[in-house]
Design brief:
Blueprint: H1 3-15, H2 18-25, H3 29-43, E1 48-50, E2 55-57, H4 59-87, E3 91-97, H5 105-116, E4 120-126, H6 129-138, E5 143-147, H7 148-151, E6 157-165, E7 167-171, H8 185-188, E8 192-194, H9 202-214, E9 220-223, H10 228-236, E10 242-245, E11 257-260, E12 268-275, H11 282-294
Parallel strand pairs: 3-4, 3-5, 8-9
Antiparallel strand pairs: 1-2, 5-12, 6-12, 7-10, 7-11
Helix pairs in contact: 1-2, 1-3, 1-4, 2-3, 5-11
């Protein structure tokens, strides 16, 4: 059964005349009669009592007549919803993100997206860098706001830069080096360092160790908390210093002093990433909306 057959049935039921119904539908009377016959065969019942002078609804036809309009309306609504899902204009998108680098950017960009596609539900997922990257690869996240080194070179993942970032030394304001504009790396060899637990961001840890080695020292780690906030809390408590993304400093500049490290090996990007094989139709819509938000 389809809505076309039901609409033909309704036309006959309302006019009680096959000729007039066919004229209204712009089809031949034979085509209309054939359609009604097929509908009756499908339902296994007669819908009309027909004579040479009249066309009346059968008891089964009366039941169908009372419910046909509601059925057509519900069916067409379902079809509309299906088409929206296929086109990506409705549904759900899971967005993973780091907190500090995107604290302002993410709310503004997603608000822009929701204004364009109000029927798409957004689900946010916040974790540390490594768990987020793993979730993206597993398909638990559709789009990921992260740091470029966290996804660069990952099989099946594409990414594009949003804005540049780098590494900075985070110090307590009372630290002897806090008023310096540049870093004397020779003095860092004797410092206590706080860093994020390696397993939470192994690529950042590796990059940081390479940067330090290139400058002639190995950090003396005295604590490895599992979260960025905990790292910076230890720095604020005076337990040590830390090397952190420069973007993090924007949200802690009133409590800590951040001195940016120089050198190309300290640079990377804040980025948006997604899987190449992701079939969620909301993803290309989100990425296009993001381009418009950025003015690209």
């Amino acid at each position: 059964m389809d809505t076309k057959s039901l609409k033909f049935f309704l036309a006959v039921a309302e006019r009680r005349n096959f000729t007039k119904a066919a004229e209204q539908l712009y089809i031949t009377q034979s085509a209309l009669s054939h359609s009604i016959a097929e509908l009756e065969a499908e339902l296994g019942t007669k819908l009309f009592h027909r004579t040479t002078r009249s066309v009346n609804l059968s008891p089964s036809g009366e039941i169908l007549y009372k419910n046909a309009n509601d059925f057509i309306s519900r069916f067409e609504k379902i079809v509309t919803e299906i088409r929206k899902v296929d086109s990506g204009t409705t549904g759900e998108i899971a967005i993973g993100h780091l907190l500090s680098p995107f604290k302002d950017f993410l709310p503004a960009s997603t608000k822009h997206f929701q204004a364009e596609y109000p029927d798409i539900k957004i689900r946010f997922i916040r974790r540390n860098l490594a768990p987020l990257s793993e979730a993206l690869v597993r398909g638990e996240i559709d789009v990921l706001f992260t740091m470029s080194f966290g996804v660069d070179g990952t099989d099946g993942v594409e990414w594009k830069p949003l804005y540049p970032d780098g590494m900075s030394l985070a110090l307590h304001p009372d630290h002897p080096m806090a008023d310096s504009d540049t870093i004397d790396f020779a003095k860092l060899a004797g410092e206590n360092f706080i860093t994020l637990e390696e397993g939470e961001s192994p690529k950042f840890h590796s990059m940081m160790m390479q940067v330090c080695a290139a400058r002639g020292f190995i950090p003396n780690f005295v604590a490895t908390p599992p979260a960025v906030d905990s790292v910076l809390m230890d720095v604020r408590a005076g337990f040590g210093i830390a090397i952190m993304p420069t973007s993090v400093g924007a949200y802690y500049k009133h409590d800590l002093k951040f001195i940016e490290l120089e050198g190309e090996d300290t640079k990377f990007y804040e980025a948006v990433a997604w899987r190449k094989d992701n079939e969620n139709p909301t993803v290309p819509l989100f990425l296009s909306s993001l381009d418009r938000f950025l003015g690209i």
